[in-house]
Design a protein that fits this description.
mainly beta; elongated; 10 strands; ten-stranded antiparallel sheet; about 0% helix; about 40% strand
């Protein structure tokens, strides 16, 4: 599970990159990453968030903020088989879960059927999913990237 709460101000001790944790996600493999949103620069420009592993994060409580949504709990677990309610013909397995500072919960679903000869994975929000069978995954997650094409799966 997650070590750090949403809204914490952290610095990656290995790179010096610093900012607020605005999202976090965990893969079925157990890898956890945090999206770090830096502060506005001296030039007044906003820079992009970056996804980092938690190995070298250091918290600065004084610069941390409280999320008005708290730290929401997931309804589903990695490995659960779910039905995508917006499309009757698709079911799949949860291979990643994400929480955002704005209260959004999303799940990375690996479809259990080939589509055009390939396994597809997509993000869905919690209301779009219905549990078929808990802990049903007997799959090897497909390396498809994540929020960033550079993210290892």
């Amino acid at each position: 599970m997650f070590k750090y709460e949403l809204g914490k101000f952290v610095t990656d001790a290995s790179t010096g990159f610093a900012g607020i944790i605005n999202a976090r996600w965990e893969r079925i493999s157990g890898n956890i990453q945090y999206s770090i949103k830096p502060m506005v620069g001296d030039d007044g420009k906003m820079t992009d968030s970056f996804w980092v592993d938690d190995d070298y994060l250091v918290i600065d409580e004084e610069k941390s903020i409280k999320s008005k949504y708290g730290n929401p709990f997931f309804k589903f677990s990695n490995g659960d088989k779910v039905k995508i309610t917006t499309c009757d013909k698709f079911t799949g397995y949860i291979v990643g879960r994400s929480q955002c500072l704005n209260g959004c919960l999303q799940y990375y679903i690996q479809h259990d059927k080939l589509i055009g000869g390939e396994t597809k994975s997509e993000w869905f929000s919690e209301p779009e999913l219905k549990l078929v069978k808990g802990g049903a995954a007997d799959i090897t997650p497909v390396r498809t990237g994540g929020f960033s094409a550079k993210s290892p799966y």
